[in-house]
Amino acid sequence: MRDLGSTQSNENFNNIVSTKAPKNRYYGGSSSLKRRVSAAVLQKNEGHSYLVKVNKASSLSPGVYTSSLTQKIDQRRRVKRLHQRSLQYKRRRIQLQKQKRKKERISTVREGVTYEPNLEFNCSVGAQEEIPKFLEFDHSCELVVFDLETTGLGRKSDITQIAACAGEESFQNYVIPRCNITSEASRLTGITFCRETNCMFLNGKPVSGEHIQDALLNFITFLQSKKSPVLIGHNIKSFDLHVLFNRLQEFNLFSTFCQTVRGFIDTLQLCRRVISKEEVSNCYKQEHLVKMLTGQTYAAHNALADVKSLQKLIELRLFEHISNSDYYSIMYHACMASYVHLDGPKKICKSVSEKLSRSGVSLQHVKLAISRDLKAAKMMLQTHKISCKQAENVVKILLCEE
Q1: Taking the model in full, what pTM does it have?
Q2: DSSP labels, 233-302
Q3: Which of 202, 203, 188, 192 is nearest to 300 (CA)?
Q4: Helix 212-224 and helix 241-250: axis angle, to 10°?
Q5: Res 341: pLDDT
């Protein structure tokens, strides 16, 4: 075959041959192979009307159905060729090719070098790290409603109760505190602890408490029993997760936790977006929301009661409104911290760092992308809903820092 400059025609011919002599049937040693290849050549050169011509040359009268079918197929073929020669089609094809090359380039930046000779010797461990892509919420994930009660109102507080529920299943552990419970926390939760007897009490009644490490392991085990669990809770982004992460890191359980949980959703942010101020009298406290929107009251500041009431609220009003903007990577807080420590006179604006951190993209990930391909790194940043100008500014800041 002659050199056409493109293999498209050759591939088209090979495809026609495969319909006449399929590889899953052995025609290579049969006498019909030459006739099958000849039929493929005729179809390539003459179109499907070759069947009518072969019948006439063989003194056979082609049937009405055969003639009609070959005419229809050839007509579709001619229309397709005319369409492919149009300016509009060529522009669209070039546009799709550009999109494909852009997608492949972004993928290369995200994944790093995935194939080359002696890859394991030429690339460092960091160079092979994959950069997270834009995080999208999958409604097939299992939502685990989660809440904590603590010894105080600070993020460094100890945990006194962990509770969660997913569907009909629920989890609860009281945790023996290692520091004093503040009077305000005891007033709200009803939890007290007597160090002389080493006993915990809920509203004056004794309850069984676990050591903090055992409680965390029990919670992780509960999450591991779920399919792609996503934590959801009220104001967990600003408080509960900070307290939980501090304790997980203390006992070297943070990595295991991150491998188990896909992400988290804060219903406080979701409610402010979905529910109008007038509907809830501009009060977004969980107890008030549950009372106004479900008509139910419950024992607030008891973790198990909190998660069960919130679960009902989610099912009634919130679940169908969950979008990508409400969904955060479980590494969000760690990624945000990486941008805070950026040195230099210029800082990456908070809106940009939040968009990147939402998908689990840290400052180190952005620097890695720039080191792999500067132009493609800008395109990768834009896939995280960052404007072209903002992406250029991020790259400029990091290059100046270096």
Answers
A1: 0.75
A2: ESSIIIIIHHHHHHHHHHTT-HHHHHHH--EEEEHHHHHHHHS-TGGGTT---HHHHHHHHH-----TT-
A3: 188
A4: 110
A5: 72
